[in-house]
Amino acid sequence: MLPEPSSLLEARGLVREFDLPGRGLFGPRKFLTAVSDVSFAIRRGEILGLVGESGSGKTTIGRMVMRLLDPTRGQVFFDGFDLTALKGRQLRQQRRRFQMVFQDPYASLNPRMRVGEIVGEPLLIHDLAHSPAERRERVARLFERVGLSSHDLDRYPREFSGGGRQRVGIARAIACSPDLLVADEPIASLDLSIGAQIINLFASLNETERMSILFISHDLSVVRYLSDRVVVLYRGRAVESGPTPEVLTNPAHPYTRLLVGRDQAVPVEPRNGESVSSGLCPFLSRCPDALPVCREVAPEHFVNDGGGRDVVCHLAARQVLWTPSSSSPSIQGIV
Amino acid sequence: MVQGEDLSLLEVRHLSVSLRTREGEIRPVSDVSFTIGKGEAVGLVGESGSGKSLTGLSLLGLFPPGAKVLSGGIFFEGLDLLAQEDSALRKIRGQRISMIFQEPQSALNPVLTIGTQMRELFKSHTDLSDDRIRECVSDRLRSAGLPDPERVLRSYPHQLSGGMRQRVMIAMAIALDPHLVIADEPTTALDPTVALQILTLLSSIRESRTKGLLFISHDLSHVRRISDRILVMYAGRIVESSPSRAFFETGPLHPYSRALLASRPEGTGRTRKDAPLPAIPGQVPPLWSLPTGCAFAPRCSRADERCRTESPPWQSEGEAGALCFYPDTTPLGAPLHVA
After folding, report:
1. Domain spans of chain A?
2. Which CATH code fits B8-109+178-266+277-323?
3. Is 0.80 surpassed by the pTM of this model?
4. E strand or H helix at A293
5. Facing residue for B284 by CB, picked from A191, A199, A220
6. Does the model's ipTM exceed the 0.90 cut?
7. What does the alpha-carbon distance between residue A92 and residue B133 come to, in Å, rounded to a whole number?
8. Cβ of B113 under 8 Å from any chain A Cβ?
9. How many angstroms separate the CA of residue B191 from the nearest CA in chain A?
């Protein structure tokens, strides 16, 4: 199956397992499945929101998309290339086209480098400036683009506030004019009055530079404001996806309903290390609407073709709007 | 004055606390006054560095090294807390005023079971028999929404999820039936669905026990769910104190509170395609180089020359009040609904 032409990035059946300690020499391998069979696509010029609680696998997915982490199974296509198969120089060449903005602007900037050098480094590595003077000129323009002053070039990260540092992180990420930004909780560690400034900066990068953005967040109201489509993760699985306004105002999955505050009658919290019986719905132990079939059969993808939505839940089968998807795991719901 | 008013549980009067730092002496709590009535829940909102956490810690007499009370008083049930000996304060702490921290992970002892830690609490503050203590401990865990207390009591903190640990913290905070509970960002480290449950729990504790609650948070939607009154801090000062309804429905008085509320996309139905978020320009000034006049003036759309030179007065509007020359009394367009 070839990747969809309209999508810039396509993740197909991503699985990531992490080994757990405690394996004996001949004992069985113990592992934790952080991400289980997740598929989604990001179209050109689109902002896709990835929401979920901590431990839902959203950061792991972001890192796999960036090729900072190899998937155990599954593929990531970027503009037609199978990223998961690229290596060495080819990977480095492609890498300037997708860049990451990290959550913690304190930990992700080298404290011993001047911010001008930090932002100029990608230009140097990818050989995008012909002379040091040109590089400095371009870095100054990047600074202005993200709302910093070019007088700040020779300062160190510690001299900036949290918001200022995050702007430096964004300037570095957009230095090579990437097609895709992966932003992992970029405003979670920022002050209240600064968050809105950074959200506006992402919206403007998308609007004027047509950058596609994978926006990873647990903050629903921000995702609602910023993203065109949303993927809702629960314990490593994509339980629902579709256009943001529809999914968040009319959620189909019981977990999404809980997340948007529609349903507060769900008493049980997930327990640490509680294992999900293989294949069954990950939300089963908390679900207020679980059917007998939920305890026996794994739910499949149901799509609402007209609405471009996809939900993995048996309840959807009871509603006329939803039809089972022909191929599973499905990306049909979002094409 | 030694005697607080009859209905007030806690009264903080003109409290100023200084702190020695590398940048010099700063004043993270500056002329702070507020009251908490019996059965009242007060939400204290502010950004990092606004002084909200230190204000909360002051109420327990817990000051970080280098901190000094410059002036003012804290009166709890008529008792001047700042004049108490350490031993008297220790009795009040935990028994009559208790605290819930943001990170239950670091507030619980990792090498003791929950049971040991909870029993210890009763042993050090009460004369109850071991059997009676066991009953009390289970009872408190149940009221904190932990249906299987036996399992929790045998557990070590790391064996519980973040939400369960926060419930244990709450069970410990209400264990000795205190009159005032201070919760410092109790929902910040939690996942959104769990945070909602904890808010519901905190709210029910207050209703059933006619206690006072000081809820410190930077999250306006959480504060709204729980508070009768909203206090807003900026650069060490309380810049607004308004009834929750007035604050969220008519609109806050202080331009900073208004700007904070407006900069969140919550409940507006707006998306990036409609308009950019009305962000507050600039950043919070560091406490060691505060501007003269109003600290918010450089970022304020209503500020004029006067705001940049003179300290603003406290101006009241019914039960609401703000530290501002030009409080904003225009009603908000439509009532905001926080999701």
Report:
1. 111-176, 251-267+274-334
2. 3.40.50.300
3. yes
4. none
5. A191
6. no
7. 64
8. no
9. 5
